[in-house]
UniProtKB/TrEMBL annotation:
Keyword hit for Ribosomal protein: yes
Stated name of the protein: Large ribosomal subunit protein bL21
Keyword Kinase: no
Protein source organism: Pseudoclavibacter caeni
PANTHER family, per database record: 50S RIBOSOMAL PROTEIN L21, LARGE RIBOSOMAL SUBUNIT PROTEIN BL21M
Phylogenetic classification of the source organism: Bacteria, Bacillati, Actinomycetota, Actinomycetes, Micrococcales
One GO cellular component term: ribosome
Gene it is expressed from: rplU
Stated role: This protein binds to 23S rRNA in the presence of protein L20.
Amino acid sequence: MVYAIVRAGGRQEKVEVGTVLTIDRVQADDKGAVELPALLLVDGDKVTSKAEDLAKVTVTAEVVEDLRGPKINIQHFKNKTGYRRRLGHRSELTRVKITGIK
């Protein structure tokens, strides 16, 4: 069983080949591929966490789709002053599928 812990959008995700995950928006190359930096690699009983060994590890993914997250409503209210403010936010996201860990 081979899996890796990668940094994706400020978070750490556990990935295996075939895993589909949603991360912050990333730009893919012209073939639609993305490389994610590995922080830890587990290959059976062998665990790799040294920086010089992880520099040789590549975790590749293909972009499935670009999407936007759910709407987050932000409301500010101050009592007795008539101050009300509504804001909204939707995150730009990318859904990727892990194609290889080498």
